[in-house]
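thought: user wants a sequence for this fold. calling inverse folding tool.
action: design(structure=
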């Protein structure tokens, strides 16, 4: 970009602050174009793109544009601003928040997701551990493609720590390029000697009319057992 096309970011944000007192989207689009100046000839579609990506917050949208637009003033979206898959967390299928689990126990955490967008999730998406307590062997696991307006259960095998206490593990879906999308999802457990999660998961997976044997004293989900 030539010198006369450089963006004065401080000036842009100062002008943006004077245009904040509106929620009208058409006005925000015009203000977006006006703040950056006519010499950039910002396309309407570009204005809408950056405003939508920032929940129609004008200063935030202008800041995002300046971060990228200073080197690409034509307004083509960088990878981090490309349209991402849509996802809504529906419910915990197993392991509600704060459910008790015995120490050193293998269990399955299952979440249910909904694709709220109008396009299928692309191939290569995966669910990734983001922060907190990593209760799994791996940090990420592949998830299947999900068609629009459909739901999918995603399960991850986890292991409770040996020490008693509360453990929180935050996860999020990612594209094949490693860009997170959708809501953060959690697994929150209480590790306690009286935890009954292993028993309830046995019962849920047992054939109809059968229940775990009362003679069985060994925890079948214990990491000390061979699988």
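)
observation: tool returned 227 residues.
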């Amino acid at each position: 970009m030539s010198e006369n096309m450089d963006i004065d970011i401080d000036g842009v944000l100062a002008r943006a602050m004077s245009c904040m007192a509106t929620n009208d989207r058409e006005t925000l689009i015009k203000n977006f174009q006006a703040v950056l100046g006519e010499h950039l000839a910002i396309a309407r579609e570009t204005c809408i793109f950056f405003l939508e990506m920032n929940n129609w917050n004008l200063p935030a949208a202008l800041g995002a544009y300046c971060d990228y637009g200073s080197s690409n003033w034509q307004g083509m979206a960088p990878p981090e601003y490309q349209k991402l898959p849509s996802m809504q967390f529906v419910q915990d299928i197993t392991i509600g928040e704060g459910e008790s689990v015995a120490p050193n126990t293998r269990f399955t955490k299952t979440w249910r997701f909904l694709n709220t967008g109008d396009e299928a999730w692309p191939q290569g998406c995966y669910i990734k551990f983001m922060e907190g307590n990593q209760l799994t062997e791996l940090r990420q696991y592949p998830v299947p493609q999900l068609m629009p307006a459909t739901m999918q259960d995603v399960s991850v095998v986890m292991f409770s720590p040996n020490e008693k206490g509360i453990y929180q593990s935050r996860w999020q879906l990612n594209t094949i390029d490693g860009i997170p999308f959708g809501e953060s999802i959690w697994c929150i457990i209480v590790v306690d000697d009286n935890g009954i999660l292993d028993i309830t998961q046995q019962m849920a997976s047992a054939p109809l009319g059968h229940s775990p044997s009362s003679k069985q004293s060994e925890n079948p989900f214990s990491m000390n057992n061979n699988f």
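thought: summarizing for user.
answer: Here is the designed sequence. Confidence is low (pLDDT under 50) at residues 1-7, 12-16, 70-77, 208-227.
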